[in-house]
Every structure is written in structure tokens, then in C-alpha cells.
């Protein structure tokens, strides 16, 4: 990064830490830009573990939620750079109130659709303006005054309670540049403070990208709670070498790269892990009229075979699940501590038997909640199991369907069949559970005819499909497809080693090219997928908002007259296969 302001790297200072120096205060920042649709779970887990197993005090500081709320408040007060017509200002105020407080408009399907789309368009434009400013500041040292002022404000806020360590939790690419710039100012203001990066996005970045920033001292990858706690203990002891701390990357002047990556390891046993601590967050800062709390009952995926998936990067080792009594105990704790009654299971996948046991315990304890989760549509989801899940509070499931063409399903290694998926969706509907389906558009080597099979499957099952979540295929570094591209009809992968990104570009022999997948996804979203849905809206809010809509169906004022068009009559853009970028680009595969 080419910053204008001077900075002395840690290696230029005398700096052996000592126990007398170390202030046992650490902060974890969640930086923009990720629309605050739910409470941050990872930092809450790390905070709880560190405080239970040490004398450190850990504060979670959600700069991200603060930023969005500050912008909305400024726009409502007429102090934002966004210019509204009088009519648009009225709609923006209605939308902000709907997302924050609910009210009658939240249950009015027509108004919800209109206002959520309008609100999203404004938010996305503002995000893009600020993201461009952060990227210019980090990459070129060009400082737009609001960017510099905000980064300094955020840094001073993170330093207000005199921490010795400041961590940055990143889940998405859009948080990278803001986190880097704020971290720079933290170190410029307090050179003695140790900077730690972590989170799902950080785990996907190559260490050389992160440590190109001289003010980043450590990176915690995979599971964070054990590694972050062990790092705090090592710093408190005055250590200058950090060998042996699992899931840690640290600056090491004795090696050529300048950093050492320690082995990854499952850092925490569920039996010793305390419940997440959300006490630092203001529940009304999140854009949902009723709080929906995240809960993680397992780490890793019970299936763990999907060839396109890289979610394993967030965890260390094989799939591990907490005992069901601990899961139900955590839910009961959240109900009693925060008064919350809505939950989102964020596990990669939960087996039907495990769902049944959790639901039976919730029923037995008379814990009155509603919830949703992710799952794989296996025929082992019997009607009886789904009915128990409904009685235990399940109101909808996000099913990983992805495709309804058997060749593509087998390439994905999903372990399902179209007929089996169809039966599971019908069983779920009969049990009173709504079905949201993940669909991948433009899987490598998928032909137009094969994709059309998936569209016809959705149409034929339209009475049991309540929402479709579709996106263009993304080739992620570390997936099976990335490691074995030829098996999936990928002829070349383009080198992006100098970019802090997770996904990479590629060429295919047949099917839709990587630069066209989003175009196709948008066509089908507008002309087909959206017609399945009630309460259209994005911003990541649909998951939690959908739970509320399904929890209180009697409040809903529906649009009515919804009709799903026949996909056979639609005319999507033609597939464009083959090379899609200049032939002189450097490639990883040939």
C-alpha cells in the first residue's frame, strides 16, 4: 500500500514486550462495508472465549453498523451528499423506518417490495462511492477528505479505551480496504498497539497480500477463538516468537518471506467453549424490526464434498458438532439474556437426525422460538422429521439444490437426484416449512439445454418453491474445481495472485464464460426467479426478514395474483464460451 503519511514498521522500533507494559485490553473491529442485517457472530465467540480463559477484556466494536446508521440518519436530516427529490426523501424515510422498526408497511407486500428495492439502490450507490475512495487511498495514496476523516475517527474510537491489541474481523471482500486504512491510522496513532487481522475473508487471502501492509502484525486464520486467545497470552508473556500457536501467521524476520504460517488445528472443543457474548452490540443497530440471533451448532460441513465449495477454509479439521443439549442450552441462554425469540442456524449443514433431536429438546423444554437453517435436500428428510422440526420452530430451510441436471449434480458431488429433491420439497411444504433454494447459474461446462432442465424443474415444482437464491458461478481458490480444472471443462485459469480476492477468472471449452455468468443470473432473476417470491428484497435482509414474515403470517397484506412464467417461453442471452480475455494475460493453467 502506498500511503502518503509516514509509518515506522515494528522492526524499526525497540520493542520487546513485557508483562509490565501489556494492558490487558483488546478490541475487535467490524468495519464497513457489509449491510448490517444481523449481529456479528465470530467476534462474539472470540470475545466470550478470551474473557473466560484470561484476564483480558475484549470489546467488539461494530463500526460497520455505526457507519450505515450514521449515513441513514444524515440522509434523513438532509446532511448527506445524496440529493433527494421531496418524494424520494419521503420514501427513504419510510424505508428506513420499515427496516429499523417494522410497522404496518413491513407486512404490506407491495410496499415492502417497492421500498426495499429503492432503499437498496441508494445504499449500494453510497457504498460504491466510499469503496472507491478507500481503494484510491490504499492503492494510490489519494485521500478524499471524508475518507481520511472517517478512517481517523474510526481509529480513535478503537483506541479510546487504551487497548494493547486491535483486531479486525473481515467476512467479505468489501471490508478489506476500509479495514486496512483504519488499521493504518490505528498504528500511526499508537505504534505500540498490535494489529491482528482475521475472519473468513482473511483466511482466503494469501499472507503476502496481507503482510504487504507493514502495520499488520498478525493474521489469525481458520477458527479464531483459540488462536486469538493464545496470541494474547503470548504477547502478555512478552514473547517475540510465536511458534506453536495454531491458526496464526506472524511476522518472522528470520525467514525469506518475512512471515511464518503455523499449522492449523481445531482450537476449541465445544465442551469448553462459552456461549457467544453479544453484550457489546446494540440490538436496534441492525436493520430488522425484531432481532434474529445467529447460532452455530457445528463447525465444518457434515457432507464436505461439494466441488465448488471453499467454506472449509473457515474451520480447522473435520466436521465437529456440539451436543444437542448444549445447543438448546445456548438458545435458552439467549432467550433469557436478550429476550430474543428468533434464530438463524448458520451451520454449513445439519443432518436430519440432529435437527430432530434439537427440535424435540426445544419442544420438551417448551422454548417458544422460530428459526431457519441451511440443509442438503436428502430423502432421509422424512415427513415425520420435518413435522417435528416445524413443531420445534422451523419456519423455512435454505436448501442447497444448485442444479436439477444429473450430470451437473454429479460434477458438483451433491449426492442428490432431481426426483429426490422434488419429493423433499413436497414433504417440507406439507409439514408447514417454506423452501428457499440455492441455484448456481453457469456452472463450468453446463450447456444451455442442461441449465434449461433446472429452470423447468423449478417451474414444475413451483408450488413447493417459495424463494430462489441464485448467483453466477464463482471459481474460488482452494475448491476442488480450482485444483482440478480440466475435469470441469475449464481450459485456463487467469493469474490474480496480486489481487486481494477470493474468486478467479477462467476460460471454458463449452457453456457460459465466467464474464457472462452474472449477466445470465440477472436475466433469470428478473424474468423468472423473482416471480416465485413474496416480499422481494435483498441487502442480505431477506433471510431474517423472511423468518419474521413466516412467523407472523396473519399480519401479511399480500399482493395476490402472482404467476410464475413458463421458462420455455423466455429468451435468455446466448452462451458465450471460450476465451473471454486478452490472450497475453498470465495464466495459472494452460
From TrEMBL:
Keywords: Iron, Iron-sulfur, Metal-binding, S-adenosyl-L-methionine. Transmembrane segments: none annotated. It holds the Pfam family Radical_SAM. The keyword Iron applies. Residues 287-509 form the Radical SAM core domain. Its cofactor is [4Fe-4S] cluster. Residues 559-590 are annotated as: Disordered. InterPro entries: BchE-like, Cobalamin-bd, Elp3/MiaA/NifB-like_rSAM, Methyltransferase_Class_B, rSAM, rSAM_horseshoe, rSAM_sf. The keyword Ion transport does not apply. It comes from the Bacteria. Residues 93-242 form the B12-binding domain. This is Radical SAM protein. It comes from Magnetospirillum sulfuroxidans. The lineage of its organism: Bacteria, Pseudomonadati, Pseudomonadota, Alphaproteobacteria, Rhodospirillales.
